[in-house]
Each structure stands twice: as C-alpha cells, then as structure tokens.
Amino acid sequence: MENGGDRVNRRRASSLLQQTVYVGPALLFFAVTIIVPFAMGMYYSFTDWNGVSGTVTWVGLDNFKRIFTDDRAFADSFWFTARFTAVGVVLTNLVGFFLAYFLTKNIKGRNWLRTIFFMPNVIGGLLLGFIFQFIFIKGFATLGEVTGLAFFQLPWLGDEITGFWAIILVFVWHSSGYLMVIYIASINNVSKEVLEAAEIDGASRFQMLTSIIVPLIMPAVTICLFLAISWSFKMFDLNLSLTKGGPFRSTESLAMNVYNEAFLNNRYGLGTAKALIFFVVVSIITLIQVRLTKNKEVEA
Length: 300
Description:
It contains twelve helices and two strands, in the order H-E-E-H-H-H-H-H-H-H-H-H-H-H. It is mainly α. It has two domains: 4-44, no CATH class; 64-295, Orthogonal Bundle (MetI-like fold), CATH 1.10.3720.10. Helix 3 crosses helix 11 (254-264). The radius of gyration is 25 Å and the shape is flat.
C-alpha cells in the first residue's frame, strides 16, 4: 500500500514536471535572449575589442575612466538625452492625459478620435522619422513661401535648438496616443458615484480633476511615467531618421552615441561600457520615479 510520503513525493514530482514543461521554455528563451547577452556585454565593457576580431584584450576599468575623463561626446549626448527626457516625459503625459480626459466625455465621434490619436503609435519610429523629415524640409519650406510665416522658415533639422524641438514634436505625436489609451481605461474606472457626490457638493470641474480624478488614477500615472521615461532614454530611431545626431552631434542621443561607438567606430568594448552606464542610470531614475509615484497612489 502506498504511504503518505510517497503520495507527497509524487505530487512534488508532478508539480516540478509541470513547471518545467510550461515555464521552462520561456525561462530558457529569456536566458538566451536577455541574461546571456547582458552578461557578455558586462564582460566586454572591461575589454578592448573591435567587435570583429578574435583578440579580446582585458583592460579593466580603463574604458570607464576614459568615458568620465576624456569623452566629451558622451557627456554632450547625456545632457541632450536628459533634457529630451525631461521635456518629452512631461509633454507626452500631459497630451496623453488631456486627450483621454476629453475623450471620456460624451463627444460625438469620440471612438473615431481615439483611433485617430492612437494611429501614430502603430507606425514604426524609423518610418515616422523619414516622413517628418520630408515635412520639416519640404512641407514647412513650401508653407513658409506661401504664408511668409517665420515659424515655417526655421531650419528645423539644421540647428541645435530647432532640431531638439523637432524631435520632441515627433516623439510626443508618436507616443501620446499610447498613453492616452492607458489614461482612458483608468479614468473610466473612477467611481461615478464619487464624481456625482462631489458635483452635488459644489465642486468645480477643475477641483474634481485635481482632487479626485488625478489621485485616483495615480497607478496609471506610475505606468505612463515609467513608459515615457524608458522610451525617452532609449530613443534612437527618431534621432537617426530625423537629424542623425547633427548638426555637429548637438542632437545625438545616448543610444545613438553607444551605437556609433560600438558599430561605426569599431570600439565595441568602449561602446558596451557606455551601454552599462546607460543601463545603471536609467534603472536608478525609473526606480526613483516608481517609488515616488507609488507613494502617492490612493485606493478608491
């Protein structure tokens, strides 16, 4: 007769087999595509390697010393990315939130408007950048000739300041629709009874927005800020297709700087060292952001 210990062991073996069958392939795929490349990148960041030859020379912390002491391009790209992230995150979330706020009202054709505002997100960033490159160079020039407005006659992709705002404009146009969908779902979950009670008590629309709706959708704000920060820091395709980092690398993002270092300058070791610093900085910023916004979340 089978005793209790044998039954327990069989259950454990069956559970282990199920976990291995259902979870094992996903873990293996994750390890092969994420963990192993990340570990190899950490190793190569301490080496001098051109990414092609079989000779890999260990240099220790020399790559990191060079980045912090003798790499002005990295510092400039870091400053550009920091400014881009600060402006892009704020504008993208504001536009996405207010689109969601107005499209949760009883507006005729709001479903069509939601679709229209979301559509830019389904266009690839590289293709979108080339479309807007044509608009900024050809379209705006034509409008400037017709209207005579100085706004359309600016060198949108040929100057540091206008190039920065051109990328911001396209980034916000591309990303805000995705955040709009998240905010719409969150706003629709706000209790109608709470809003009706506030309205009966004489609260204005602005007071309801700032004192009721915003605090109750803070979980969505946490997600949207996290996504926008991640997108902003990793922005590469728009940068490549719009300005290619020019003029004179004044609009070069961190992602593009890492790419150029590793694959154009054939300094793969130095490029992976920059990527590792990039990863640490983004991780710290996103952890702080999530911690701060999580503390502001309230329960309905």
